[in-house]
Amino acid sequence: MEKMKSAGIIAEYNPFHNGHQYHVEETRKQTGADVIIAVMSGNFTQRGEMAIADKWTRAELAVGGGVDLVLELPTVAACNHAAVFAQSGVNILQNLGADFISFGSECGSLELLQSVADKLKDNNSVLEASMEKSLKEGLSWPRARQEAMKEFLTEEETSVLAEPNNILALEYLKYMDSARPATVRREGTGYHEMEARGKFASASFIRQQITAGEDVSSLMPQILPETCTDTNGKDDVLFRLAVQKILTMTSEKLDAVSAGDAGLGNNAKKIIRNCRSLDELAEKLKSKRYTRTRVQRFIMQILLGITRDDVNQRKDYVRVLAANEKGSRYLKQVKKAEICKLPIITNINKDLQHAPEIQDTIEKDILASDIWNLAAGRDLYKYSDFVECVRIFRQTP
Q: Is residue 56 within 8 Å of residue 388, measured between CB atoms?
């Protein structure tokens, strides 16, 4: 049987909305793909936040929105900076034989993005040296990066780096070799824009509306079940867990956390008794050198025990969360052709026994689910990774 043409997407779907569905549909049109594969963040996101719904539910809604096969991006990569996030996602998709990797971008120009990606790669040493100098002079990290890039990028190319989806796109391009790139221009509102435009709105706005109890049915193909989003008090639970960790860990161990750095752990220990919430803790740790997003990741990585060693020594795998019949058929093709060099996990209780090399990495996924369920007030056994199973759906005729 001839291999089905496939296109991969790396996403968070937090939650899956009309903009995501548009991306899936446009990707299928652009690439002519038979199968759309999504590698999706699990229960914690790249910004260091608890996802609005558990990974199984979000994967199920993604299939309902047009994705054929949904895989989990390992937590150590999902709750990390852009380079790690992209590298693992691209590695998983290319191991699955993805012909294309499609990503959203604000500029919508593959040529422009590729030009910037090439220049960043060729001038990496210049960039790092210039940034280090600027940081010592007191510039914030984003400003230092922007000033350093002016040395070798045009004004148009520099402007590309002002948008979050463009930045991730550059990271995807950096790690792609066997798959071909495709980009879909972001439609409607911006990444952080807190209003809807027609049927499109940012995930941030939709999460805010859901939390406030507002109707978002016009902005999503399917609505999240109330049992997934009724997580009042979750931040308080996470904060109390963070307090316990920071009080009991040494400054050195806190600095060894993936997003940590010399002095950040000591600062956390100094201020923790004067903080009353996650938001206050993040605000007090934020500085010119450490952005709010990095600090949020730092706090969540403390909870999840994600160190730099965990990230550097991580082993990727293909962990299936949901699929329709077409996605299941494609996965069988991949297994039969033996093109995937990564372990394929469809049943964690059985498959993990044959892949001891991924034990340490996948344990972070298991812990992330436990902490998410604890914060959401859900039964730890019933909703654990050892009980939850792959969602399989019949293909719509």
A: yes
Mean pLDDT of 253-267: 92
Tokens standing for residue 6: 């496939």
Summarize the chain as % helix, strand, coil (round to 5).
55, 10, 35
Calpha distance 219→230 (Å, rounded): 19
| Fold (CATH) for 6-106+181-230+315-393 | Rossmann fold (3.40.50)
Domain limits, the chain: 6-106+181-230+315-393, 110-162, 234-310
- In what helix (H) or strand (E) does residue 6 lie, and over which residues does it extend? strand 6-11
- The Cα–Cα gap between 109 and 265 comes to 41
pLDDT at 145: 79
Nearest one of 76, 93, 90 to 169, comparing CA atoms:
90
pLDDT above 70 as % of the chain? 96
* Per-residue tokens: 290: 């450490």
Tell me the C-alpha distance between 325 and 348, whole Å: 21
- Measure the CA dihedral 325/35/106/153, to 10°: 140
* Crossing angle between the packed helical segments 234-248 and 264-271, to the nearest 10 degrees: 110
DSSP string, 246-267: HHHS-HHHHHTBTT--TTHHHH
CA atoms within 13 A on the CB side of 238: 31
Compute CA distances 147 → 113, 144, 151, 286, 379, whole Å: 19, 5, 7, 21, 49
Residue 21, both tokens: 């569905």
Backbone CA torsion sign across 15, 20, 21, 24: negative
Q: What is the mean pLDDT of the chain?
A: 92
Burial 280-313 (b: 16+ CB within 10 A, else e): ebbebbeeebbeebbbbbbbbbbbbbbbeebbee
- pLDDT score recorded for residue 1: 67
Alpha carbon distance 285, 272 (integer Å): 10
Residue corresponding to tokens 């689910």: 369
